[in-house]
Specification:
Layout: E1 10-13, H1 15-20, E2 21-31, H2 35-42, E3 46-47, E4 52-56, E5 59-63, E6 66-67, E7 84-87, H3 90-103, E8 106-115, E9 118-128, H4 131-155
Antiparallel strand pairs: 1-8, 2-7, 2-9, 3-6, 4-5, 5-7, 8-9
């Protein structure tokens, strides 16, 4: 299931992940959520920053991602920072576990979106960037932005 397109409505993106990591592969996973968490996601109250995924007992979990409590919920609201179970095929989980444990990769949530009525998470198999890599990326984006500005200003004159 590598390289799937996000066909649904985007909920949140983890822009910090693209700044801190090289994304080698992308995977799609479902999430096991409670009803009030889904209602809170529809309101857009989620934060993917500083979250990661880990394999425990042959199951994949998203750790450190925050879903705010539902505003109109009461005793049925759940803990915002609880570890959410991700739903993938066992073969894919074992493959990812092998890569993460051997080669220095890490699993990082990249985005969260609705696919029909279900919530899906895009997970990236990532390698960490060094400081000089981050500087290089920032220089490229600055140069691109400058070129677009000059092109736009020259286009109308």
């Amino acid at each position: 299931m590598a390289e799937k397109k996000n066909s649904g409505r985007m909920i949140a993106q983890n822009k910090k992940a693209y700044h801190d990591y090289f994304v080698d592969e992308k995977y799609e996973a479902g999430i096991a959520l409670f009803g009030t968490e889904v209602k809170s996601l529809r309101a857009g109250t989620v934060n993917l920053k500083d979250s990661y995924c880990e394999v425990r007992d042959g199951e994949l979990y998203a750790v450190g991602f925050h879903i705010s409590p539902y505003d109109h919920g009461n005793i049925f609201n759940h803990e915002p920072m609880r570890d959410k179970k991700l739903l993938m095929h066992k073969k894919e989980i074992l493959k990812l576990h092998g890569l993460v444990s051997q080669k220095g990769f890490t699993l990082v949530p990249l985005s969260l979106y609705f696919s029909g009525s279900r919530v899906k998470m895009e997970i990236g198999l990532c390698r960490g960037k060094k400081l000089y890599d981050k500087r290089e990326d920032m220089a490229k984006s600055d140069a691109k932005r400058t070129m677009e500005r000059t092109f736009k200003s020259n286009q109308y004159t």
